[in-house]
Write a structure and sequence with these properties.
613 residues; two-stranded antiparallel sheet; 7 strands; NPH3_dom; ubl conjugation pathway; BTB/POZ domain-containing protein NPY1-like; NPH3/RPT2-like
């Protein structure tokens, strides 16, 4: 901290109680000057030799009946006046960043200029400010803080503007050139950490991150902070990411953690002003440089304290531009009346719609047109948003107030190709079906129509096959496509293992014969596998339920009956049989053989048909 000493005489000012100060001297005091609630008993000569204002005031007072001179609205109060009075007496006084602004404003009030006396107080203070205080980082911030209580004097004297310009200029300095002290208690930014770990710089470069200045200016009041940030942005040298970090640090410093403190009548106006100011200071890149989680948390607070609509609209648009970086937990924003849901579904719906609209309007729209209008998955952001929407649907699916229409609308907001896998969507639908037991058949059908069973993984397929909440038709589709997928995989492996390795010429000559031979071998192999499985199934019946690894035993009764039906249909098609072969004794499914039934295959088939229907 910089300081300057003025004068050399010992301090002769003394007190009488709390409201009287006087200059101890052999000569009697001849003037009373009142500043605020304090009276100063002083001598005219030293004061009038330095102050033009006091000359005017004293000249209007009769010498025969000296009265009390009132200094109304004196900047800095009694303490600032005492500094000026001591300077007039030549008493030692120390100026520092905490009192220099008050002293400067008081000297201006008293008109202590060079016209009255050379080397007067105004000149000395200006030299101290320009040569020492404003060249120091922390001193500039202290002076700026103290200037707020001295408005409009400090503003008119351009002390505020000079401090702001000094602070903004220092933030733009190359970190390697910084020699002054600063406060830094946060983690290094990612880019700075990479530089520190990956390359060898000088010690000075390693010790000074790009955002070194953020914490120190967090101590400023919101009005001054806004002016400093605007000055920093106007210089055009600061990265948007650092600006975003600065706004985040300021919000964390001043916004209370509890909801009650946010909305309390005492602080709600201050909190509203703070949030609206931070929003207006967001980087000019439409919030791209700010973390999405920070913007969403800011939006939560803005909704809670009922910030103005324009501020919330700016946040919503900025968030939609980088929705692919959002977390599901950050999107769980409580709903406000008149909404009946727990979370604000309409807000998330709007965010998704704006994201899709923005992505579709980008340059890759030309690529879509070239491909016949089909959607082109040009960026991973689509996949991320698809997962985010599915995760959000799963999180809000338990809300009893959430309607089927709202659920479906949000699910259909993202393009189909943003969901190459439907496991997340299936999980959300499953939760919704379990928590909303009163759905009609039509509503259940609409919900399940969101899923494409062909895009379910094996684990999701096995779960869906045993899910009693799903409609029967969906379970049939799941089992059918799983059987088709398994058959296709088996067929591909058989072709790789059994296909003869021939040259292209020999293959062309013997292809018809080889196809017949291969088909015959495959039929024989399938018959052999069916016999072995039937024998194993018979052993399972004899041994009871000791072997728990059978996939057929794992299926519930309804799914097993459907699987029996699909087994017979697939077997009949594979062996080239007609529909009437379903009733033959050799067409029994593994489930029928496990049960060990001795009835005719025809009656067994009828029983299964009755159960499915």
């Amino acid at each position: 901290m910089k300081y300057m000493k003025l004068g050399s005489k010992p301090d002769a000012f003394q007190s009488e109680g709390n409201c009287v100060r006087y200059a101890s001297s052999e000569l009697a005091t001849d003037v009373i000057i009142s500043v605020g609630d304090v009276k100063f008993l002083l001598h005219k000569f030293p004061l009038l030799s330095k102050s033009n204002k006091l000359q005017k005031l004293v000249s209007g007072v009769s010498e025969e009946s000296p009265g009390e001179i009132q200094l109304v609205d004196f900047p800095g109060g009694p303490k600032a006046f005492e500094i000026c009075a001591k300077f007039c007496y030549g008493v030692a006084v120390t100026l520092n960043p905490y009192n220099v602004v008050a002293a400067r404003c008081a000297a201006e009030y008293l008109e202590m200029t060079e016209d009255i006396d050379r080397g007067n107080l105004i000149l000395k203070i200006d030299i101290f400010l320009n040569s020492s205080v404003l060249r120091n980082w922390k001193d500039s911030i202290i002076v700026l803080q103290t200037s707020k209580s001295l408005l409009p004097w400090s503003e008119n004297l351009k002390i505020v503007g000079r401090c702001i310009d000094s602070i903004a200029s220092k933030t733009s300095v190359d970190p390697s050139l910084i020699t002054w002290s600063y406060t830094y208690n946060r983690k290094l930014a990612t880019s700075d950490q990479i530089m520190r770990n990956g390359l060898k710089f000088s010690e000075k470069m390693e010790s000074v991150p790009r955002d070194w200045w953020i914490e120190d200016i967090c101590e400023l009041d919101i009005d001054l902070y806004k002016r400093v940030m605007l000055a920093i942005k106007s210089k055009g040298r600061m990265d948007g990411g650092v600006i975003g970090e600065a706004l985040k640090a300021y919000a964390m410093r001043w916004l209370p953690d509890s909801v009650d403190a946010l909305v309390s009548e005492v602080h709600i106006n201050r909190n509203k002003s703070l949030v609206e100011t931070i929003i207006c200071l967001l980087p000019s890149d439409k919030g791209i440089s700010c973390a999405c989680s920070f913007l969403l948390k800011l939006l939560k607070v803005a909704i809670l304290i009922e910030a103005d609509d324009s501020s919330r609209e700016v946040l919503i648009k900025n968030i939609s531009l980088k929705l692919d970086d959002a977390l599901v937990s950050d999107l769980l924003i409580p709903a406000r009346p008149p909404q009946s849901t727990i979370y604000d579904i309409e807000l998330v719906q709007r965010l998704v719609d704006l994201f899709v609209e923005n992505e579709m309007s980008k340059k890759d729209k030309k690529m879509i047109e070239k491909n016949g209008g089909d959607f082109v998955l040009g960026y991973g952001s689509w996949l991320k948003v698809g997962k985010i929407v599915d995760g959000y649907l799963a999180a809000v699916a338990r809300d009893q107030s959430l309607t089927v229409s709202s659920f479906i609308k949000l699910s259909e907001s993202v393009p189909e190709t943003a969901r190459p896998i439907h496991d997340g969507l299936y999980g959300a639908v499953d939760i919704f079906l379990k928590e909303h037991s009163g759905l009609t058949k039509s509503e259940r059908k609409r919900l399940c129509g969101l899923m494409d069973v062909k895009k379910l993984t094996t684990d999701a397929t096995m779960h869906a096959a045993q899910n009693e909440q799903l409609p029967l038709r969906v379970v049939v589709q799941v089992l059918f496509f799983e059987q088709a997928r398994t058959a296709a995989a088996t067929h591909a492996i058989s072709n790789i293992d059994d296909a003869p390795r021939k040259t292209e010429e020999n293959w062309g000559k013997t292809a018809p014969e080889n196809r017949k031979s291969l088909r015959k071998q495959m039929d024989e192999l399938k018959m052999k596998e069916e016999e072995e499985e039937s024998m194993k199934s018979g052993k399972l019946v004899k041994r009871g339920s000791k072997n728990g690894g059978s996939s057929v035993q794992l299926l519930p009764s309804r799914s097993r009956r459907i699987f029996d039906r699909l087994w017979m249909m697939g077997k009949g098609v594979a062996n080239g049989e007609n529909k009437s072969s379903e009733t033959s004794g050799s067409s029994q499914s593994p489930a029928s053989m496990i049960q060990g039934e001795t009835k005719s295959s025809g009656s067994s088939l009828r029983h299964r048909r009755h159960s499915i229907s």
